[in-house]
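Notebook entry, structure prediction.
Reason for the run: the old model in the group folder had no record of what sequence produced it. Starting over properly, with the input documented here first.
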Amino acid sequence: MRRRTPRSTLSSSSAASDVYKRQVLGDGRNEIVDSKPYRSYTGHKKEVLDTAWSAGNFLLSASMDKTVRLWHVLRAECLATFRHNGYVTAVAFHPKDERYFLSASYQEMRLRLFNIPDKKCVEWAPTNAWCTSAGFSSDGHMALAGCYNGMCKFYQTEGLKFITEFDACAGKRERPDDRKKVTGVDWVGDQLLVTTNDCRLRLFDTRDYSLVCKYIGLSNTDIPVKASFSQGGKYIVCSSEDMTVYVWNTVNDFKPGLFQSRAREDHNESNEAFKASNVMVTSAVFAPWSVPALEFDSSGNNSPQESEQALGQVLLTADWNGVIKVYEVTRPPKIYG
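New structure, fully documented this time:
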């Protein structure tokens, strides 16, 4: 297990295998993911670059074949195909109305809003840069495009009217050929988590677009990895090219020891890291609380982030070879005095 500081985020300093227990699939006990696929979909002619789920169990898939396809878990066939004029690198359902979705077209440098029942694009906006990621705000009032040049561009969802933009990697462009592509965004409330391929995650406050914290530890220079929050927002997880999964506390509460240098609240290098594969780990996410049947404080006295605990959390990982693994946090974190 690798850590950048003596303090771990989720557990004590024991081996990661003691903390993250991989579920044995298909053994009839504690089964979380069935080893047999529930359904397999075919139809895309080239690689699938992104997927998105809706609350109603609809699935969108974006592909290098210049299409977005709509599926449902109860149907074996494709329900609709939405054609583009370039690679579709990102797709996202509207969080409040799943009749609409957002797509990002890489070569066209366009952000599109589609109406699913009408099967047509109702709005589009130029991004003026290769678009590599996209998403909605939690209330669905704003849309976001993350670009190859590191820019994050914000639009009103209605009409896709441009609002503002900022450089997610500002201050780190020592050379013109530095690669700072935005590879993923996760927008929850006022918190926007941006993953870029300079081996950094950055948390922004979208009320004033200020940088809140930078998370360090992962390796990300080539593949489009994406960090995401746990359901309560207390933790952040991200896959990595070094065959490892990294987890951070969202709030950097690391306190340096007597002989350690002063810690910066806006730089979080304290993480839990465990090897999840012998090849690059392409994806890692927290499972919803309903999967492991976690029960946190529901008294209303604490916010979800305050009441969320590490113990019992479930993580899913996928690697370059297509292997999916399930881990559970089985030991409580050690309290450091």
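Summary: The longest strand covers residues 120-126.
The old model has been moved to the deprecated folder.
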